[in-house]
Write a structure and sequence with these properties.
With 123 residues, this protein is α+β, with helices and mostly antiparallel strands. Helices cover 34% and strands 26% of the residues. It contains 4 helices and 4 strands; from the N terminus they run βααββαβα. The chain has a 4-stranded antiparallel sheet with strand order 2-3-1-4. Helix 2 crosses helix 3.
């Protein structure tokens, strides 16, 4: 019996560099949580599948970027749906300014050339 292995696309990882706006900072922490859970998260859940995120505070170390929202999407279509969903919420350009989007695939060089991922290090 012959086994066929289907080559799958690597997940897409996006580093969303964002900066809070005065409108966001004027809200109390409770108002921020309410806005996020009622306006942003429902749009993401309604319009996407196959995305995961982690959120990092960076305002202690950077004035240009206050937060980094790291997204992983199963494929480019899932990532595009995520960005479209976010753009339709107050998150985009009202509560936060998207300073930059850095999008890539983990160890893409190794996958392309059939090499070990030598730049991924654990000590």
């Amino acid at each position: 019996m012959t086994t066929v292995t289907e080559k799958t696309a690597p997940p897409v990882t996006a580093f969303m560099l964002i900066k809070t706006t005065p409108e966001w900072l004027a809200m109390t922490p409770q108002e921020r949580v309410r806005a996020f859970t009622t306006q942003v998260i429902p749009a993401i859940r309604a319009k996407t599948t196959g995305v995961r995120s982690r959120f990092y505070d960076t305002e202690f170390y950077s004035t240009r970027v206050t937060d980094v929202w790291v997204w992983e999407a199963d494929d480019h279509d899932a990532y595009q749906l995520l960005i479209d969903a976010l753009r339709e919420t107050p998150f985009w350009d009202r509560y936060f300014t998207v300073v930059d989007l850095l999008v890539g695939t983990e160890n893409g060089y190794a996958r392309t050339y059939g090499l070990d991922a030598v730049a991924t290090i654990t000590t």
